[in-house]
Amino acid sequence: MVEYSENQLDAVFQALADATRRGMLAHLGEGAHTVSSLAEPYDMSLAAASKHIKKLEAAGLVEREVVGRVHHCRLSPNALKYASDWLRDYERFWNARLDVLEGLLKAEDDTDRNKGG
Description:
By secondary structure, the protein is mainly α. It contains 5 helices and 3 strands, in the order ααβααββα.
């Protein structure tokens, strides 16, 4: 299995645990947005939106650039790739186990068919 930083994975999964932050990430998947445009669909203050974005930044999922008084955010996909790679290790683990189970169930079915026929 690939080695991962527990703190980094914790930060990513904690950030993804909130529906508002997942929605913001989906919106950023379409391109860069200002904090106000990210806040708009949620009918929240800019301060509340900024707190969500700070959590996403801390996890490495979002980069923010300040131009004058406007904060521009864009997706930073490296942290998502890191989490995806971690999940993929477990996907391989479970797929291997499920393949064994499928083989056992097919063998049992074949045995039952041969006894009945």
